[in-house]
Amino acid sequence: MDGRMLGRRVLVTNADRYGGPPVVDLFRKQGAEVIADTSDYLDPQAPRRVVAEAGPVDVLVANFAGPLRIMPLTEMLGPVQDSPEADFQAYLDELVWPMVRFVQAVLPQMIDRRAGKIVGITSASTLRAIPGLAVYTAARGAQNAFIMCTGAEVAPHNVQVNAIAPAFFENNTYFTPQMLSDPQIRASLVANIPAGRIGEGYEGAELVLALAGDASNFLAGQVIAFSGGWAT
Q1: What are 83-97's pLDDT values in tens digits?
Q2: Where are the domains of the chain?
Q3: What is the model's pTM?
Q4: Could you say which of 3.40.50.720, 3.40.50.300, 3.90.1640.10, 3.30.230.80 is the CATH number of the domain covering 9-226?
Q5: How many angstroms separate the CA atoms of 148 and 150, rounded?
Q6: pLDDT tens digits for 51-93?
Q7: In terms of DSSP H, where are the helices of the chain?
Q8: Which has the closest alpha carbon to 113: 57, 73, 62, 74?
Q9: Furthest-apart CA pair in the chain: how many Å?
Q10: 29 vs 2, 128, 200, CA distance in Å?
């Protein structure tokens, strides 16, 4: 590895879920000091505590996964009229509010020193309709809108806020190894992907790495699809 993150302090949220594990692995190989947080963020004060304990943060990787009881993807699909309000509230509590609170907690120090990167790991489900995922997509849409607006707002402070929006990549949350080991499920997913395959976790981590470095210096509020051409 070429040490692209040497000397950088990187805070990764939900570090053991969704896009977290490959990001933690790659950033450490690239020389970063990684704070791999696995806290429960349901307490509204938790993000501020995590950031305060982390100290100076050069890069925040805002990676959030939904409630464990509603996953993997095969457990999430269903008619919108049958979606319990409790599920939508759970998505708000575990996807939307933690992102807002972590960004609010880390931005003051980045603005003060006129340097910092925030990279969200959200979802491409907002870029192309998936019937059966209405409430999940609504929550991910809130994340993406937040990234877009915040990125534009803080760009004058030399703080870059962007996101990758994955779909159809291997991870331990939505597209688990167990789920993808079913040939029928894998084939039905691949049939929708122009690249002709499922994405790999390390590929998403490489894109996060790019947005955490100098490659994103002139990007603000971008939500970049990581989906093998499924969303463009």
Answers
A1: 889 999 999 999 999
A2: 9-226
A3: 0.96
A4: 3.40.50.720
A5: 6
A6: 999 999 999 999 999 887 887 777 778 889 988 899 999 999 9
A7: 20-29, 46-54, 73-76, 85-91, 97-113, 134-154, 177-180, 183-190, 201-212
A8: 57
A9: 52
A10: 9, 34, 18
